[in-house]
């Protein structure tokens, strides 16, 4: 029996088990860097497969599956395991049992899929050459990102993988399809925290005050020129503010206004220059109007790039496994992912898994209380990753 058929048969036989993994993890979500029970569950499942896990970064789980045939080739497979501070809609049998916490970004899918992939690879280990490194990563949703911590702790050493694969659900992609993009794919992500301090007072006497609300409004408008007039038009750049806090009243001008926002792009040199220009512009404008401004940039994840040769290989493997008609091209995406850290130091391919089913009403975006998946995607996700890994190892 050829490799594709064997893996498909194993993925089918493991489907209900992987669904059970997904529903258990979904029902017991944990926030970033607090995934102790999730990690314990993953370690137990790996141990039951005969795979010995190693704990890294407190709640990360790493393990090796070594093929019986001799080869120095190593490939890493990564899944993230943390959840989000979101209250899930009520009424689901497998809904979150932890109030205010939900797997609303599909990390339950990623981790359960990798458990299924691990079981397939373990079943075939006597027939392939090379080593597969499994990485169940904590803290993708929170700076500094679990990937950066795992890399510092040596997750990409001993043995060192030549390449790494990661998959992520995509709610706009129908179940049964997967998406790839070569080269730059996801943006760097920085958090902006701005405080404008003036002098508050009565709203009827603005001449006696230094109005931080008016000054902040001017700063917000002016900062958009960083994107529209200073960024290269060919370089995707986004600057958005999602929170403004000025605790005055209809007739009260407050002493200060706080802003929170995000800056995203695809070039490290421009990223650093934009940070400098935003800070200089905001502080200078506040000073010119009699106020002060504190402009803090919390540098987040770098941009994610898919190595072209590896991505082309993985796409061809996916076409073999699923059929060319089920593979789609992805656009640039301005969201961020800490998988980007891996992509900066090792050849990487981060692809997307379709989970949408309009007939069943499964259409909600990630990071929403209604998010869900068509669980038939779990059969595809486990088998495809196993197939790509073994093909990449030359089997």
Main beta sheet strand tally, sense and closure: 8 strands, mixed
Order of adjacent strands in the largest pleated sheet: 1-2-4-3-5-16-6-15
The total count of strands amounts to: 16
Compressed to H and E, one letter per element, the order equals HHHEEEHEHEEEEEHEEEHEEHEHEH
Number of helices: 10
Strand content: 25-35%
Low-confidence stretches: none
Quote the distance from N terminus to C terminus: 14 Å
Structural class: alpha/beta
CATH architecture of the largest domain: 3-Layer(aba) Sandwich
Q: How many structural domains?
A: 2
Helix content: 25-40%
- Mean pLDDT over the full residue set: 97
CATH topology of the largest domain: Aminopeptidase
Shape: elongated
Give me the CATH superfamily of the largest domain: Zn peptidases
C-alpha Rg (nearest Å):
24 Å
CATH class category name of the largest domain: Alpha Beta
Attribute tags:
single chain; 395 residues; Aminopeptidase; eight-stranded mixed beta sheet; four-stranded antiparallel beta sheet; 35% helix
Itemize the secondary structure elements and their pairings:
Layout: H1 3-13, H2 15-27, H3 36-48, E1 54-56, E2 60-66, E3 69-80, H4 107-123, E4 129-137, H5 146-152, E5 163-174, E6 178-180, E7 183-186, E8 188-197, E9 201-202, H6 212-230, E10 237-245, E11 252-253, E12 256-265, H7 268-288, E13 292-298, E14 304-306, H8 308-322, E15 327-329, H9 339-343, E16 347-356, H10 377-392
Parallel strand pairs: 3-4, 3-5, 5-16, 6-15
Antiparallel strand pairs: 1-2, 2-4, 6-16, 7-14, 8-12, 8-13, 9-11, 10-12
